[in-house]
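sry for the spam today, last one i promise. struct tokens for design, 160 residues
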């Protein structure tokens, strides 16, 4: 059986540069399928699939929020914890431009612009997470401490 080659994305390059152990997890991407589809395709709990959300505050200052696939972000709680008036999702075109990735394939690793990163604190206590590897249809299985090592995220408690 031929060995499948891991696609080289900026996220994969970043993980390798930081000597992070990861397992590439390609799956059949479905438009608007989200973490429910990737979890099903990979046979993992959707709670372990971490979505990378590009948000912005009322002054249009962007940020990345990492959240369990099975949870939503309370924008009200996030705004309160960040001491801003409002937080909302970035328009997809802006998210793509800021990260250098395509919506549905946005990874927090190796983004075009360095953005502040916030992570739902319970993500960090998981044994293993699956997070986007920099393109649609590719997650990477990693230890959540890799987030801390590479991204130095601010933990928040905003899951609903």
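last one done:
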């Amino acid at each position: 059986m031929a060995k499948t080659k891991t696609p080289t994305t900026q996220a994969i390059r970043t993980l390798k540069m930081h000597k992070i152990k990861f397992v590439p997890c390609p799956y059949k991407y479905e438009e608007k399928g989200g973490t429910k589809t990737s979890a099903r395709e990979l046979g993992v709990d959707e709670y372990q699939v971490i979505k990378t959300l590009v948000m912005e505050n009322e002054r249009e200052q962007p940020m990345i929020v990492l959240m369990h696939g099975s949870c939503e972000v309370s924008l009200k709680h996030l705004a309160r914890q960040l001491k801003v008036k409002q937080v909302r999702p970035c328009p997809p075109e802006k998210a793509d431009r800021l990260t250098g990735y395509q919506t549905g394939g946005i990874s927090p690793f190796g983004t075009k612009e360095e953005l502040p990163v916030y992570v739902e604190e319970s993500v960090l206590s998981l044994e293993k997470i699956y997070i986007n590897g920099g393109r649609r249809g590719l997650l990477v299985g990693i230890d959540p401490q890799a987030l801390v090592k590479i991204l130095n995220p601010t933990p928040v408690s905003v899951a609903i």
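Residues 25-156 form a domain with the YbaK protein fold (CATH 3.90.960.10). ok im logging off now
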